[in-house]
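anyone seen this seq b4? input:
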Amino acid sequence: MAAQFLSLACMRRSESSRGGGDLSPQPHYPSMPKYPKGALSSEEEKNMEGSESTALFSVVGMTCSACAGSVEKAVKRLPGIKQAVVDVLNNRAHVMFYPSFVNTETIRETIEDVGFQATLVEDETNEKSTNVCRIQIKGMTCTSCSTTVESALQAVPGVQKAQVALATEEAEIRYDPKVVSYDKLLEAVEDSGFEAILTSTGENTSKIQLKVEGKWNSHSMRMIECSLQALPGVQEVDIEPELYKFSISYRTDSTGPRDLIKVIESTESGRFKAMFFPEAGGRESHRKEEIKQYYRSFLWSTVFTIPVFLTSMVFMYIPGLKQAMDTKVVNMLTVGELIRWILSTPVQFVIGRRFYVGSYNALRHGSANMDVLIMLGTNAAYFYSVYSVTRAATSPYFKSTDFFETSAMLISFILLGKYLEVLAKGKTSEAIAKLMELCPEAAILLTLDKEGNVIGEDEMDSRLIQKNDVIKIIPGAKVASDGYVIWGQSHVNESMITGEARPVAKRKGDTVIGGTVNENGVLHIKATRVGSESALSQIVRLVESAQMAKAPVQKFADRISKYFVPLVIILSFSTCLAWFFAGTFHGYPSSWIPASMDTFELALQFGISVMVIACPCALGLATPTAVMVGTGVGASQGVLIKGGQALESAHKVNCIVFDKTGTLTTGKPVVVNTRLLKNMLLREFYELVAAAEVNSEHPLAKAIVEYAKKFREDEENPAWPEAKDFKSITGHGVKAIVRNMELIVGNKSLMLEENIVIPVDAEEMLAETEGLAQTGVLVAVDRELVGVLAISDPLKPSAGEVISILKSMKVRSIMVTGDNWGTANSIAKEVGIDTVIAEAKPEHKAEKVKELQAAGYVVAMVGDGINDSPALVAADVGMAIGAGTDIAIEAADIVLMKSYLEDVITAIDLSRKTFSRIRLNYIWALGYNLIGIPIAAGVLFPSTRFRLPPWIAGAAMAASSVSVVCCSLLLKNYRRPKVLDNLEIRGIVVE
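predicted toks r here
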């Protein structure tokens, strides 16, 4: 699915400009056909929409994209076919169809009629074997927590893969729905001691949360629930009576928000009113609630801690107040000690309760996290103070020394740090929030009569749009939903989705993307993808998944986190014991001990400082926060990076393999010259060639067919002569029987293989075309050469500059193409590439990539076609041009949505900047701990008498994780290399 939305969002644009035309205020579109023009009546179309099925076929014998194209075309010609996608790499055909018009056996026979063996794959058509769900997790504090949850999820039978991200506080789980339900996954998280909230089930459903106002009782609740469950497409209804809230999961192809609201409001004679629930849940609302919680906790902690701090460290220097604080209450217990005890207790046990819960959950599962360090440190200070003041209260001679300010101030500073950390982490995912803001708030719904005339329009919330609604888009408004134009002409600015700056002409039949802006004319569109199916939602989902994926470098932090907390606890106790025994056995002068302390109290302070200054959080956040910001920045620049693995690999790239057609060139070849070697009409010649090439999906074949249409200008879709025994020869050309004549169209090597004589003048023209960086195509009829075509695929204006910039970045460029050597060398010379591999089949491209890797290069492959997919997969980093095929995009690690070649440089530069930031984060996190722990342990104390009080150590620990997040946030200021801006200024970048 990820590939399909990108294909929709980045499809090739038509070069022709379409005018505005006069618009009637009451447009009429009688049939609004969804299938082959006029084949179905509107009633038939309506009837079949509810009974959609899918089938997966194994297709044996396909060798290239032309084979896949011929199968796809044959299947699409059948009545009742909604969609057909053929994957030549995996020998599969995925077909969506309506069983009332066609069945799987007919589809299978049709594929076999084309010349390939087809088998229906039963298991995969009946039920999905894998779902991916997402769970929001509350309460994680460091990598130890995320590792605990990840291990618990991995242990659940049926879970194939689980990823837990500390930075986003989410888990993404790939599981088998036949073996385990998402309820079991939620239980596994909660058993680990954390709160779990399901945010996505991964099933083909949408979820809506509605607030229902009215006179509630148990009977009315059951009535509403039963009414909703009776509605076709509704899968699950959850009720939260205390919030008057209904959560409904449903299938978008069967029902929608308006239907659900209508059912609720019609229950019990309209006693109820339904509306969208104000807080729809999800990451943002959870983040806001978390920020509020930490803010409130810090505020209350400060209210209690400030008096503790004042009585402990300020009032003792003010004469009048000092006497008041030193007044005895019971025996040696003073007023100041009693006040500190009373005020620090709620901080320790009420406000600090979250740390007790976190440490208990961690220890219960055999791990130790940051909460354990905080609890050990604060409890040591608090309970020693309780012992000291209790002894003072029961003894007329013992003068106590308390550390209540240590525990209270520690908790306050840590809460402040967590508040600032959550605040900063919220900014790392702003890219997703900005994408979501592209959706308009309102939409104009049109009402049609049976003939298709507009009889009314109604403005409504855009969230209420359902599949097959007809929406009116006025000039200047955002397109409210993915769909296709059924009436009107206009230009649409799609730059916010695709990066394409120039407005794209739209007329009847053209697709539009939700969130784009209508520039001038009025458009009426039919909604085809709503809710989670929309292109925008799927882009958001891809970016979210990328932010979830761990970079390999994060394994370093995960390994350290297993031993970090236990090691710190050992160091803390060792420090305490070392100073205690050193003092007891006079290992240092007694003058070193502060007047208000004894040997044990000094040792205790050193031990607590070591425990609370160590920060596992900073290590855990070093990588994910930088990856989150980096992928978000990439998405805003039109570079979709599929996670940390892709980012890490891209920064090491030192060799790039470029495909030619559609990558270095525009991918829109045109016939520029024709030479006939026999006496025949040019129209007749092109009819024969077009008849053979119309069955091929190759860009050169499409260029020939488009050129042939010029001889049939009177026909919009000319019918070419029938081609029998069509055969595509990968990397060479095609063969077919047209009008009882054997036709061979292809390159020179194909003609030589077929033993066809190539005249001298044809050889000369081939040499001439190749010298001009054009492709020569030879045409033979009945094994005699009759013509030569010269086809030009213009270079992208920025290609030469991009190769030059890559050289300056010490990245080697290589071109691999299936085209002939002459054309390939000419193109390479023009752009400045030294190494060329021509006449390469798809497997040869992948082999070349592997050879380069074996030679020690970190290789990136840039391509856009099906034949590039093996190389994209084989490369360390696959980069797909956004206007390319679904399969290429699916196989790639990075998708260049704008189809701009210079975004290759942006992707590499951004990955380098991101990883330099990750390195800086690790240097800071490790350096902080390596320097801070010895200082806290008292390394400087013998020579300087400097010691780090525990509360200052706690403040430093809180500041360290905040500083790592802020360091990652600086990536938001990323600007692509200035040389690329210079390309735009000079007009090299095509818009």
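The two ends are 28 Å apart (CA to CA). Residues 578 and 603 are 8 Å apart (CA to CA). kinda curious what u guys think
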